[in-house]
C-alpha cells in the first residue's frame, strides 16, 4: 500500500545576494583610473509551485531542507554578478503553508500551477563604483550581499473534494464510495479499514459531476486525539457538503441517533465552521432487518430534538449493497452543491499579512541589552542587516558602518544606558570597544 503523508515540517533558505567588488581601472594611456567594481547578483527565491500530479507530501519526509543558490559576486570592469535561479519546490494541490514560528497561514495552494514565494533571496551588494562622489572619487567601499530569508514551515495537505463522507467506522462509507465512483478503496468488516482518505469522481445521470472523499472513520473523542484522532479531520475542511453516513441497521448494537449526535459533536469540537456546511443524512444498510423501524425512530428523535424554526436535514434511505436509492441521493447532492458557496478556511487573524520585505518605519532600528558577562548587546533587523552587508575587510567600509551606527543614535543610547569608555559591545559574534 502506498504511504500517505499529509503533514510535514521543513526548512527553507533563500540565496544570499552576491558581494559587491572593490576594483579600479588600470588601463594603459588612461590616467587617474576610477572605481570599477560591479554589484553582486540577486540570491535565488524559494518558490512553491502546485503540481496536480502529486498526491501526498511524501517527498518532504526524506528531504526537509531546501536552499536556493546565492548570487554571483560582482566583477571588475563594472560587471555585475549573475543573479541566481529560483529554487522550484513542487507541492500537491490543497497544500496549506504555515510559518512554524508564528503559526500564521502564509498561503493556501489549490490551483494547478499556482506559485508562491515562501523565502525571498537577498539583493546583491553594491560595488565601489556605486560609492564614488566628488569628495571621494576612488572609494574602497563595497557591500556584502543581503542574506536570503530563512524560515521553518509547516505544510498541511487537505484533500480537494466537494463532498465528504463522515460517520463511524464500518457504517459503509468505503462501500458507498466504491459503487458511486470508480475508486477502489480497501473494504473490510473491521474498524479503521480506511486509514487514508480515498477520493473518487461521481457523475450523475443528469451529467453533473463532483469529487467525493471517503475519510477515515471517526469515533467519540476523535477531536481530542482518540482513534485516528485529528490526523484526517483536516481533510473535511475543504468540502462544501457533508454526507453523514449512518448504519441504520444498528448491526453493532449502537443507537443510530446517538451516532449522529456523537459525530456532529466531534466535527464541532474540531472546528466550529464545519457545522456551517450543509449535511445530508445517508441512512445506509436499509436492506437489513430492523432498518425500517430504526429509521422511523431516528426521524422521530431528530424532529423532537431539532429547533422548530430550523430546517431538518434531508434523509435518504439507501443500500450500498443493492444500490437502492443511490441515484436520488446523488441528484440531491449535486443540487445542494450548486447552491452552496465555498467556505473560507481561515479568518483574517489566522492569515499572515501580505509579506513586506523592507523595514517597518515604526519599528525601533535597534535594541540594547546586556549579557551576563557585562557586554552590551545590540540587536534589531535594520542594524543586523547593515552589519551583515558591511565588508569588514575594508577600513573605509568599517568607518562607514561606524558613522551609520552614530547616525542611528546607537552611541547616545549606549551612553544613556551607562556604557563607559572601553566597555565591550557585541553584534552577533562581532565585538568592539565602546569609545566615549
UniProtKB/TrEMBL annotation:
Gene Ontology biological process terms, A to Z: ribosome biogenesis
Keyword Glycoprotein: no
Annotated Pfam families: DUF1967 (PF09269), GTP1_OBG (PF01018), MMR_HSR1 (PF01926)
Binding site for Mg(2+): 174, 194
Molecular function GO terms recorded: GTP binding; GTPase activity; magnesium ion binding
Occurrences of domain OBG-type G (ranges): 161-338
UniProt-listed Enzyme Commission number(s): 3.6.5.-
Cofactor(s) this protein cannot do without: Mg(2+)
GO terms for cellular component: cytoplasm
Database matches in Gene3D superfamilies: GTP-binding protein OBG, C-terminal domain, GTP1/OBG domain, P-loop containing nucleotide triphosphate hydrolases
Cellular compartment(s): Cytoplasm
Superkingdom in the source lineage: Bacteria
Role: An essential GTPase which binds GTP, GDP and possibly (p)ppGpp with moderate affinity, with high nucleotide exchange rates and a fairly low GTP hydrolysis rate. Plays a role in control of the cell cycle, stress response, ribosome biogenesis and in those bacteria that undergo differentiation, in morphogenesis control.
HAMAP family in the cross-refs: GTPase_Obg
Quaternary data: Monomer.
UniProt-recorded name of the protein: GTPase Obg
Species classification: Bacteria, Bacillati, Bacillota, Bacilli, Lactobacillales
Amino acid at each position: 500500500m502506498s504511504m500517505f503523508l499529509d503533514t510535514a515540517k521543513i526548512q527553507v533558505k533563500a540565496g544570499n545576494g552576491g558581494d559587491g567588488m572593490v576594483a579600479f581601472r588600470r588601463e594603459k594611456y588612461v590616467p587617474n583610473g576610477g572605481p570599477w567594481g560591479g554589484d553582486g547578483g540577486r540570491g535565488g527565491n524559494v518558490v512553491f509551485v502546485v503540481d496536480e500530479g502529486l498526491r501526498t507530501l511524501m517527498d518532504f519526509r526524506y528531504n526537509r531542507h531546501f536552499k536556493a543558490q546565492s548570487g554571483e559576486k560582482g566583477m571588475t570592469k563594472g560587471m555585475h554578478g549573475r543573479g541566481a535561479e529560483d529554487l522550484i519546490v513542487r507541492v500537491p494541490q490543497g497544500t496549506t503553508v504555515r510559518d512554524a514560528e508564528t503559526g500564521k497561514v502564509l498561503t493556501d495552494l489549490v490551483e494547478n500551477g499556482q506559485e508562491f514565494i515562501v523565502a525571498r533571496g537577498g539583493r546583491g551588494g553594491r560595488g565601489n563604483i556605486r560609492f564614488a562622489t566628488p569628495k571621494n572619487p576612488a572609494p574602497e567601499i563595497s557591500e556584502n550581499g543581503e542574506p536570503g530569508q530563512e524560515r521553518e514551515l509547516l505544510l498541511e495537505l487537505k484533500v480537494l473534494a466537494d463532498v465528504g463522507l463522515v460517520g463511524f467506522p464500518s457504517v459503509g462509507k468505503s462501500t458507498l464510495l466504491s459503487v458511486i465512483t470508480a475508486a477502489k478503496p480497501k473494504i473490510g468488516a473491521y474498524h479503521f479499514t480506511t486509514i487514508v482518505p480515498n477520493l473518487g469522481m461521481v457523475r450523475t445521470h443528469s451529467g453533473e459531476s463532483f469529487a467525493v472523499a471517503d475519510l477515515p472513520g471517526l469515533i467519540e473523542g476523535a477531536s481530542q486525539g482518540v482513534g485516528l484522532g485529528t490526523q484526517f479531520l483536516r481533510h473535511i475542511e475543504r468540502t462544501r457538503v457533508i454526507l453523514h453516513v449512518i448504519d441504520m441497521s444498528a448491526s453493532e448494537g449502537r443507537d443510530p441517533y446517538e451516532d449522529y449526535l456523537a459525530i456532529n459533536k466531534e466535527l464541532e469540537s474540531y472546528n466550529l465552521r464545519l457545522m456551517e456546511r450543509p449535511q445530508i443524512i445517508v441512512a445506509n444498510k436499509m436492506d437489513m432487518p430492523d432498518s425500517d423501524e430504526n429509521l422511523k425512530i431516528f426521524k422521530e428523535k431528530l424532529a423532537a430534538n431539532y429547533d422548530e424554526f430550523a430546517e431538518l436535514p434531508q434523509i435518504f434511505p439507501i443500500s450500498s449493497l443493492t444500490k437502492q436509492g443511490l441515484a436520488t441521493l446523488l441528484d440531491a447532492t449535486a443540487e445542494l452543491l450548486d447552491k452552496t458557496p465555498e467556505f473560507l478556511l481561515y479568518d483574517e487573524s489566522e492569515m499572515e499579512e501580505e509579506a513586506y520585505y523592507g523595514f517597518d518605519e515604526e519599528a525601533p532600528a535597534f535594541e540594547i541589552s546586556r549579557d551576563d558577562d557585562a557586554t552590551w548587546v545590540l540587536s534589531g533587523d535594520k542594524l543586523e542587516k547593515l552589519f551583515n552587508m558591511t565588508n569588514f575587510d575594508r577600513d573605509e567600509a568599517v568607518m562607514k558602518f561606524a558613522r551609520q551606527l552614530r547616525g542611528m543614535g546607537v552611541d547616545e543610547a549606549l551612553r544613556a544606558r551607562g556604557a563607559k569608555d572601553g566597555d565591550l559591545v557585541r553584534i552577533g559574534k562581532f565585538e568592539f570597544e565602546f569609545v566615549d
